[in-house]
Amino acid sequence: MYQTKTGWPDAPESLAGLNRYGGPDVIGITGRITPEYAINDIDHTKTKVRSPQTNGICERFHKTILQEFYQITFRKKLYETVEALQADLDEWLDHYNTQRTHQGKMCCGRTPFETMIEGKEIWKEKFVN
Question: CA 55 to CA 111: how far, in whole Å?
């Protein structure tokens, strides 16, 4: 969810790893990690098949984006281009990550961005100092 190119002032310079399902956005036609991940030195691991423990958060996000963005947006607006849909999705994702509070076990009423920044500070205190 967090990207290095978000424009957020305190966004991490790089991601340590990415746990994904291995779809075409990560694994290109050649079966290798796409250049964006390799250039930024992001490790990629695949989730295990039929393993809700490792894939549950991702599945819950898919349900949230379906219910809170796609179902509402497609009732209100007819998109003529994928770019227009992508622009609205980017706007919704920014709201989701920076303004909408979450009740999950990691966020505890904070936004994902706040959780990331606080986690980064804790990591610095623990490992850098």
Answer: 21
Single-letter residue type at 8: W
**CA–CA separation, 27 vs 45, rounded Å?**
11
Helices (H), 8-103: 35-39, 52-65, 71-76, 82-98
Q: Which residues contact 129 (CB under 8 A, 6 or more apart)?
A: none
Q: What is the distance between the alpha carbons of residues 67 and 72, in angstroms, rounded to a whole number?
A: 7
3-class DSSP state for residue 121? helix
For the segment 29-46, what is each residue's pLDDT rounded down to a tens digit? 445 555 666 666 666 667
Q: 53-70, pLDDT tens digit by residue? A: 777 777 888 899 999 999
Can you tell me whether residue 91 is helix, strand or coil? helix
pTM for the model stands at 0.59
Domain map (residue ranges) of the chain: 1-46
Closest CA to 47 of 16, 18, 20: 20
Is residue 12 a contact partner of residue 4, using CB atoms and an 8 Å limit? yes
Structure tokens that stand for 60 in this block:
């819950």
